[in-house]
Amino acid sequence: MATGEQVTIKTPDGEFMAYQNGEGPAIVVIQEIFGVNQVMRDLTDHYAAQGFTAICPDLFWRIKPGIQLTDKTEEEWQQAFDYMNQFDIDKGVDDIGETLRYARRQGGGKAGAVGYCLGGLLAYLTACRTGSDATVGYYGVNIDKYLGEAKTIAKPLMLHIAAEDRFVDKDAQKTVMDALKDHDQVTLHRYEGVDHAFARPGGEHFDAKAAENANARTRAFFQSHLG
After folding, report:
1. DSSP of 140-163, one letter per residue?
2. pTM, rounded to two decimals
3. In this predicted model, what pLDDT tens digit does every residue of 54-88 receive, in sequence order?
4. pLDDT tens digits along 82-139
5. What is residue 57's DSSP assignment?
6. Which of 29, 61, 203, 218 has the fewest CB atoms lying closer than 10 Å?
7. H helices, E strands: number in the chain
8. Run of H or E including 88
């Protein structure tokens, strides 16, 4: 698999960088709170290897371009939470929309998105607010606060929910599932006994079985709706 490249995406507010790899229908890979780090680049390469143009935009560029943290130290966790608290979610979704438009200009045809952690919420909002052809969110936090937007979801959305998510309590999970379970564009999968970031390779709560299951569902979902 070829190494990806850094590309520039221009918006009305300025320009930001993104990591891109692969050819075919596009998938925008939406970052966690740690920036476009090695985990996100590896995920981008993973989708590229499946036959997609995968693009991971630097959504923290308005705070500080090029942030790359890990989940290995308490200091980095605190930095990541600080960046998340500064992050403008609405502007972030706008940037994802610009990335989708950029992807379509590359001639790849359909374009979707997949997000993790903070990116899981942004994936949900991408399905609500943009023309993403198919969208997947992994363990999104605070989706329950945006359920009023679900009525605008017009294209397929899949959400992977961690039953023991430390950042999304059982009441919030139930609220999300009750609100979305009958939506004709939404597919929900809940994974028992796993915590937030169960699909992050090398992470503290990585669960190989649940990750394999979720990733297989995601792969089939994108192949069905973007292929």
Report:
1. -SSGGGGGGGGGG--S-EEEEEET
2. 0.95
3. 999 999 999 999 899 998 999 998 988 899 899 99
4. 998 999 999 999 999 999 999 988 766 899 999 999 999 999 999 999 999 999 999 9
5. E
6. 203
7. 6, 8
8. none
Model pLDDT, residue 43: 95
Q: Which domains does the chain have, with CATH numbers?
A: 5-225 (3.40.50.1820)
**165 tagged catalytic:** yes
Q: Cα(81)–Cα(78) distance, rounded to whole angstroms?
A: 5
Q: Which of 165, 205, 207, 225 is catalytic?
A: 165
Catalytic pick from 71, 144, 160, 196? 196
- Phi then psi for 115, rounded to 5 degrees? -135, 155
Instruction: Answer whether 112's CB lies under 8 Å from 123's CB.
Output: no
The CA-based angle 209-1-57, given to 5 degrees, is 75
Predicted pLDDT of residue 80: 85
Closest CA to 35 of 68, 83, 74: 68
Q: Number of C-alpha atoms within 13 angstroms, CB side, residue 214?
A: 28
Residues 6+ apart with CB under 8 A from 154: 185
Of residues 175 and 79, the one with the higher pLDDT is 175
